[in-house]
Design goal:
Blueprint: H1 19-34, H2 41-48, H3 52-64, E1 68-70, E2 77-79, H4 81-95, H5 98-111, E3 114-121, E4 124-131, E5 146-147, H6 153-160, H7 164-173, H8 187-200, E6 203-206, E7 213-221, E8 227-236, H9 242-246, H10 249-264, H11 276-281
Antiparallel strand pairs: 1-2, 3-4, 3-8, 4-5, 6-7, 7-8
Helix pairs in contact: 1-3, 2-3, 5-10, 6-8
């Protein structure tokens, strides 16, 4: 957690009655979500420049209404499931706004295949948005659907971005379920596959999650270079082999760059479909 003394969290004198407390509650939620672990009242008070009684009162109020909870066996605060569910709903709503949803539409137009957009959450891949291709018998994963990390294209992208310690911890806590004959369930083999993803910036699911389905994914980074989401297309193996999937990489990379602009650049062009010139450069 990083305190910033240049931005003291005090309510404005002309704020409506109660607005100061609301602002402080939001700042407490923000700090807890930004932290790498449970946070005590004393830590929050120091970072936010609040008094301990005020911090304790607001944090307890947030706990009573289900937006915070205590760490197991302790008194420090962590985000609650209710707050996490709210955050996911916000992400799904934002992902489906016309500017971002239009990027997925463009990918489908260019490739003829279904396009998915997802993030990692609590050891799973969560789809935030999806545009189906105009083919019969398509897969139906609605926004909010959760699928495994180790056998999906976007999921493996996120695994490849983890540090060695974080990856080891996740693998110890996660069962590598075998969904098909192609599912990688050996940790050493999975690590080798993740090394290749780091080198190429591409992740392929070659019938590892579902028989007969091939996917290819690319990362969406924030301006600091941290992986925030993944963009993928999926299709039946009879129509798109793993080798054929690689041919769509330039389109996916152009779309990922445009998605980054739409998500993180206020002065961006609103997430318009990538131009043909950008597509060629990719």
């Amino acid at each position: 957690m990083n305190g910033d003394s240049s931005t003291k969290d005090t309510a404005k004198d002309d704020a409506p009655a109660g607005a100061g407390s609301i602002f402080k509650a939001l700042r407490i939620l923000e700090r807890i979500v930004d932290s790498s672990g449970p946070v005590s009242v004393a830590q929050l008070a120091t970072i936010l420049n609040y008094s301990k009684p005020t911090t304790h009162r607001i944090a307890t109020f947030l706990e009573e209404f289900g937006f915070l909870e205590r760490e197991p066996g302790g008194r420090r605060f962590v985000e609650s499931q209710r707050l996490i569910d709210l955050a996911l709903k916000v992400l799904m709503a934002a992902a489906q706004r016309p500017n971002r949803h239009g990027i997925l539409d463009w990918v489908v137009e260019q490739t003829g295949e279904t396009c998915n957009f997802g993030i990692m959450h609590r050891g799973e891949l969560v789809y935030l948005d999806r545009v189906e291709a105009e083919w019969p018998l398509g897969l139906r994963f609605e926004p909010g659907s959760r699928v495994p990390l180790h056998c999906t294209a976007i999921g493996k992208l996120f695994l490849s971005a983890l540090s060695d310690d974080s990856l080891n911890s996740l693998l110890r806590a996660t069962r590598l379920t075998k969904y098909t004959d192609s599912t990688i369930v050996d940790p050493a083999s999975l690590r080798a596959a993740l090394d290749q993803i780091r080198e190429t910036g591409l992740s392929v699911d070659n019938q590892e999650f579902m028989y007969g389905v091939v996917c290819i994914a690319v990362p969406v980074f924030d301006p600091s270079g941290e992986l925030r989401a993944g963009l993928a297309i999926s299709a039946p193996e009879a129509r798109m082999s793993a080798e054929h999937a690689l041919e769509h990489a330039p389109v996916l990379r152009a779309a990922a760059a445009k998605m980054q602009d739409a998500m993180f650049t206020p002065a961006g062009n609103g997430g318009a479909a990538p131009s043909e010139e950008n597509d060629k450069r990719s």
